Request: fold
Amino acid sequence: MTQILSEVYLDYSDILIRPKMGINLNSRKDVNLQRLFKFKHGQTRTGLGVFNANMATVGNFIVAKKLLQKGMFATIHKHYTVDEIGKFFLDAKQENVPLDNLFVTIGLKDIDGQIQKLKELESGYGWKSPRNICIDAPNFYIQKALDVLARVRQEFPDAVIMAGNIASSDICLKLLDYADIIKCGIGSGSACLTRKQTGCGTPMVSLILECADIAHSVGGHICADGGIVDVGDICKALCLNSDFVMAGGMFAGTDEAEGQIIEKNYETSEMFDGKHVIQTKCFKVYYGMSSEYANNKFAGGMGNYKTSEGRELLIPYTGSIDKILQDITGGIASCCTYIGAASVKHMSKCATIIQVHNQLNKVFEKYSV
Ligand code: 5GP
Reply:
């Protein structure tokens, strides 16, 4: 019989972190944003657990470099060639960009070819320990995904492996036999159409709670992927015990994201000389990796058995990524001072989460400049 689970599953907009008296932190400068991660399969890494999404738009070299320089983690998307990645490694070394927290993404298609690609990176460009692999599939519930994961672990026993995406805790233990980090989140992404097209998905807050619980019980880690609207959502994910957070849309309007700046003219309601004043606004294109646009670009078109589970968006241009990265580190540090957490590692222990009906005051939203 089909069952309906009646417990309400919550999303970021359904909760807030309640400030409280904790240890006495005088300034956000005193907060330790770096965390030591001891992974299930033996490796350790240190950094602030924030990733850029492994999408063609924001999983590029320039965005990755910026996050790594800021002490965060980063991914590069799966469509780069060996030589492009190799050149990035060489340039990064010359510019003193730390590569220990960089994840190279592969997909499920042509696994022999993908293993070969990683081996060529090893032999041609010295990609040896520490090295990290992100195995990306929109749906990790298929047997092929599990087979690929097992094979990659066998070929690269010393790598940190992040695998996903999933949207329930029942599969976590199975993945952690081979993976170190499970990427959680289906249907939450800003360029995603999965919930509309398939009706499938799980709200992020409840998902993080249930997956972190299972993963941490066996020494695994999780990454909350998709649905980050504001820096506060990153803080919420960390307080809920997610070890890592991945964001795409947040970085997609920046200079560093792929694509040109597009200018559009708008007629405003303001009049001058009997005519509407024209205003120019700048945008960048952000597209889902399952969108028709991405399928046309990378997979030679949509197969006739598929429906597009991603969309193409024109999103406001936001300038340099530096400002957003500063907002992220500043926002997390400030959150720690509100809850009395001396370090990111302690956020989940210190946080009290409250369920709310209204999260933000939006009264002047339409006047924002
Ligand atoms: P955002 O931070 O923009 O809310 O979400 C980014 C995440 O959306 C990605 O890391 C990935 O998990 C997911 N995503 C990217 N492209 C697509 C797509 O075309 N369809 C779906 N369903 N999810 C996508």
